Every structure is written in structure tokens, then in C-alpha cells.
Amino acid sequence: MNTKQIAYSILDLALxxxxxxxxxxxxxxxxxxxxxxxxxxxxxxxxxxxNAENIGSSATSVLIGYVAEGTTTIRVGSGGVMLPxxxxxxxxxxxxxLESLYPNxxxxxxxxxxxxxxxxxxxxxxxxxxxxxSFPDKLEKIQTYFSKANANSKIRATVAEGLEIPxxxxxxxxxxxxxxxxxxxxxxFASHFATTHLFEAIKVYRNEFKASASLKKPYxxxxxxxxxxxxxxxxxxxxxxxxxxxxxxxxxxxDFVQPPTEMTDDLKEIMQHPQVHQMLKYSxxxxxxxxxxxxxxxxxxxxxxxxxxxxxxxxxxDRIKSYKLFAExxxxxxxxx
Length: 337
Description:
Layout: E1 7-12, H1 22-38, E2 43-46, H2 60-69, E3 75-82, H3 88-101, E4 106-111, H4 118-124, H5 128-133, H6 135-146, E5 167-171, H7 175-183, E6 187-189, H8 198-208, E7 220-228, H9 232-238, H10 240-251, H11 265-271, H12 274-279, E8 283-286, H13 288-302, E9 306-310, H14 316-336
Parallel strand pairs: 1-2, 1-9, 2-3, 3-4, 4-5, 5-6, 6-7, 7-8, 7-9
Helix pairs in contact: 1-14, 3-6, 7-8, 13-14
């Protein structure tokens, strides 16, 4: 019998729904995190994005502190900090400070993408492409700043030295899989939107993994879109907000998260468009029974150690309910295991 317990977590973008202020959005983020803590979620991650009016998680470290302050046990972190945008020294100082404020609860997930469009990436730092290529070196610097051995260096992140802050490598292709394996770090794959290379990346990571002081065997986190409601029809109705978000991404007409509507033939047709269908391949939408079956299949295929759920819905209460039902699903799957 397989006794492996699958952790379940949340990735949030502080999505701004139509009619909501940023203040209300951030209040809803905290409300969601507090409920998630009571539902048994392992971690609550926030993703760095820029120049998108429907995404509020731009100042990721600040928002992590806000969520950590309003919760007590759930791990809080970045999914991720887009490292080419930042100085490794500053990130080490920010997360060292967070870890000292909220001991044993802070995660540092690192990605190499800009989290924005090209023009904005260049506005953040003019040498973005060079910074992206030096991602492994930047990772090495952060690890150095966290080490006690760096106390004798001329350049120190004094608030970070000696702190055990878990580092996770994020990826949407095989590039970061090689790096995570080489460094012996846990690997989180963005399969909630980048579905094409999921199995190849996991295979690369597991085959090339070298044990490290922080991790003895491979650890895979897989992203999935989750929308659970009382009935399949209600979940389908709620998913219309997600579909319109995806349309906005493909058309370049990004807008605030729209209220759900009844599912139309036009929206169903859009769901079957090859690009949209591929992007939403690992989107599990429906009643508990339907989503549970889909999740079990996904876990069997990937053998993931942890699922990180993304639920893009208009109303925070619908989001909370969906995450509650998903937690029930994961607990039922773990009981069977």
C-alpha cells in the first residue's frame, strides 16, 4: 500500500476583481489565507507580477509579511520572486527579515522569468536578459548570503546569515529542472498554465537530482487550476471568469476579473481552441466527485509530492469554498493512501 501523504498548498496572485479596490483585494487575500490555514493547507504562496492592473502581488515581499502577520501556522512565501528583477543581496535581506519576524514559516521560491512584458522588464532593469542568463549565479549568491560562512565576507546580508529558509526553484520548461536537480533543491512546476513540458521536466529533475544538505531526495510540486463547487454546473458557471481572463491574456486586453455568467456556446468553443485547451490542460473544474477523480489521475501520472492549487474566481467567498472542498478532496485521497 502507498502511504505517501500528498501536501496541498495555494498559489495566489492577489487578483483584483471588477469593482474592488486594492485595499479590499489585499483584505481578501488575508481572509483567504486565514481560511486556508484552518483547512490544513501547507503553504500560501504569492507570485510576483508587474504592470497588470488585475494582479496586486507586485510588491511580493511586502504582501508576504502582511499575510504572515495575519496567520499563525501556515507557511507563507513566494511563488515566486522573479530573481532577475532583483539584487540577490536585497532578496536575502528581505527574506531574512521575514524569517526573523515569522520563524520557520517563510519560503523563498525563485523564478527566472520577468513576470511581466518585455518593456516593463527592461524598465525594472535595463540588463534584464543578461540577468536572466545569470540566474544560477544569482541563486548561488543568495545561498552564500544565507550561510554562516559569509560572516567573514566584505559583503554580507547580516539579517539572513545562518537562517534556514527553504529555497524552491520554479520552472515552466526543462531549464530550471536541470538547475534544481544540480543544486539539490525542491522543484515547483507551473503546470497550471505551462503544460507542455511538465512530464519531461519532472523526468529531468528526478533523473539528475543530487542530494544536498537541504534535501535528500527529489521533491516535486505541481501547479493545478482548481474550481470546485456543489455541482458540475455551478463550477462551470464560476469558471467563466477564468475563461475570460485567459481570453484577455491571448488578446492582450487584460482586465479586472469579471463576474461569472452562465456558460455559453461561444465560451465552450473558446475552451476547445488548441492554445486555450493546452494552457488549461490541468484545470480541474466540477463537483467534488469529478475533481477528485481528475486529481487522482493527475497524481498517478506525475507522482507529485505536493499540489499547489490556483483558483481564479471573481468572489473571495467562492474561492474560499472551492479551497475548502479541495482540502476535503486531498484529505480523502490521503486517507485512502
